[in-house]
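During the first year of the project, the team set up a workflow for recording each protein of interest as an amino acid sequence followed immediately by a discrete structure-token representation. This format lets reviewers and collaborators read both layers of information side by side without switching files. As required by the reporting guidelines, we include two representative entries from the current panel. The first entry is reproduced here exactly as it appears in our internal archive.
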Amino acid sequence: MTSDPHLIFADVSLDIKCGAFQSALDKLNGMERWLPESYIFHLLSARAARGLKRYEAAVEHLGHCCRIAPSNQVAWRELIEVKTLEAQAPEPEHKPVIDALAAEFEQLSIALAGFSPPRATECADPTPLAEQKQPFPDDASISVPTESLANLFIDQGAYKKAIRVYTSLIQLNPSKADHYRERIDHVLEKL
């Protein structure tokens, strides 16, 4: 037998087409360690397993195909077909009964055992109300001055802050400088 995977895949495809499913699996045996992410390998393995009515193995290989190439509809279609065949197949008498829910809980508990929540960078305590109500100084820098903010300061009686906002607005928007100067004059009358 040749070592070129493409020739092996071609030979396996012919075996599957002729119904020689065990021969196809024998030829694929041992290739998975060299081609674990090969879509073609898993697809051919699934088809051979399906031919031998080994539906669980076929589902596993088709699952690999769907993870490797999620947009390829061939594997998805075949996975649905195999799942349907698997559901319709009579249960073998010697098949061990596995509680799927218990197995899923076991996997979940293993995953959670290694989980550690991220450390919080802030404390959960809110800022005390007394600290929230402390005004910032009149000469503090205002990063985003707006006319609405200036009006809010006027309503609160923080006239120096309002004048500071209007002064910043004159520099940011010189076309409305006259309007802002009028507003500054209006605020100065209240002082």
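The second entry, processed by the same pipeline in the following quarter, appears below.
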Amino acid sequence: MKYKMKQKQNQRITRINGATLVVGADIAKKIHVARAVDYRGIELGRDCVFHNDAQGLTKLSSWMKEVGQAHGKTEIVFGIEPTGHYWFPLAAFLQEQGITVVVVNPHHVSKTKELEDNSPTKSDYKDAKVIADLIRSGKYSEPKLPTKAYADLRILMNLREKVSASLTQVKGRIGNWFDRFFPEYAGVFKDWDGKASLMTMRAFPLPADIAAKEARHVLAHWKTEVQRGVGIKRAETLVAAAAASIGLTEGTTAARIELSTLLGQYDLFSEQLTGIMEQVLTILTDIPGAARMLAVPGVGLVTLAGFLAEVGDLSGYDHGQQIIRLAGLNLKENSSGKRKGKTGITKRGRSRLRALLFRAVMPLVAKNEAFKALHRYYTTRSQNPLKKKQSLIALCGKLIRVLHTLGTKEREYNALEMLGPVRLTQIGQVSA
């Protein structure tokens, strides 16, 4: 499908013809409703109410084929609004049956539901018809459900995000514990998650435990596992801080249990995070072009894995502009008559992908000479200079096109080729 919006919209409309059975379905957790129309919007057959199980999905498939045969339809286009995660098994089942699955924007369904009966009434039965009408008008898109390695990658990166959030939460709780029971600890160990610090927290959790020891005893405990980075001065500082601590002295029995529990959670989440990233690295080694994309200075494992988890197989995109639209980074403009409004990004795509790209492009501007030169050119050019944030958004699009080219054509990264139409004399020579 063409990546330009006008051509793509025309293709979507012409795809729905007299031989097409358009089915719209409202998806819930347990019971779904489907209705079928032709390309003019005339409803065909009765509605189909089916459950979210094997028997229900088989019923849906049989119903669509029966309606299609009864009205001479040779192709079925099945559409839903992708709210929640309940539609994933249904979409996978229908695709295995050779039925085309498309999605419509839930915002469009909400805005157009009054066109059906001039009423703001909402029901599963009504929404199914609204979805079918949107599809026959070409207001749909085809979801790219991940398969094979990309399916594993998406699950792992989603899991990584959840585990990372849990780990961050645990770190905050440990910081809260120190604020209550040992506020002076941060003056001894700048980072409490260092090896010597963790040993101290497990062996001497409270200031009273440390103050009861001599500095040489604390140092001897450290030296059983840590040979460098800590010495007698650090041990003496720790003992002195513990002796003068203003931390709470009541509830110490529960405080020991709390810290031990938090440290156990910290170890668990840290271990899980390491295991997840090891598996992600294994998967990336089997994805074509991954090594070349990782060769881009500033693009790391997490960035590339997150990008491919959201986008899927890059060979399914004809041009990087399709991914730009998927991320919601394509431009919008509000103009009327002589008035020309400000230009911004639509934000109509995947917010997680958009956020990942923005976070990735900031270190690129600092570490990648080509991106640094482009950023300098965009913000200082004589005509239409961009603000810094605008430049970063433009560079997000450039990063998408670079990764798409490297991933699909499997070419080696070359900074000079990456600059594209911008003249090197304008931005300065950049090393490859």
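For the second entry, the following points were noted during internal review. The first helix runs from residue 5 to 15. The mean pLDDT is 90. Both points are flagged for discussion at the upcoming steering committee meeting.
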